[in-house]
Amino acid sequence: MVENRPWLTVLSHAVVLIGLVIIAFPVWMTFVASTHDQQTMLRSPIPLLPGPHMVDNYVQILTEGYGGRFGSSKHTLELGWGPAKISITMSTIAMTMINSMIMALGITIGKIAISIIAAFAIVYFRFPFRMWFFWAIFITLMLPVEVRIVPTYGVVASLGMLDSYSGLIIPLIASATATFLFRQFFMSVPDELTEAARVDGAGPMRFFWDILLPMSRTTIAALFVIQFIYGWNQYLWPLLITTKESFYTVVMAVSRQANVVDSVPSWNLLMTMAMLAMLPPVLVVVFMQRQFVRGLVETEK
Amino acid sequence: MAGVSFKDVRKTYDNKIEVIHGVDMTIADGEFIVIVGPSGCGKSTLLRMVAGLERITGGEISIGERVVNELEPKDRDIAMVFQNYALYPHMTVYENMAYGLKIAKVPKAEIDQRVRDAAKTLELGQLLERRPRQLSGGQRQRVAMGRAIVRKPAVFLFDEPLSNLDAKLRVQMRLEIKRLQRELGVTSIYVTHDQVEAMTLADRLIVMNAGIADQIGTPMDVYDRPASVFVAGFIGSPAMNFLAGRVAEGGRAIELAGQGGARATLALARATTAAAGAAVAVGLRPEHLAPADGGPLELTVELAEPLGADSLLHGRFGESRETVTVRLPGHVRANPGETRRFTVDPGHVHLFDSQTGKRLADA
Question: Which domain holds residue A152?
Answer without folding.
Answer: 74-300
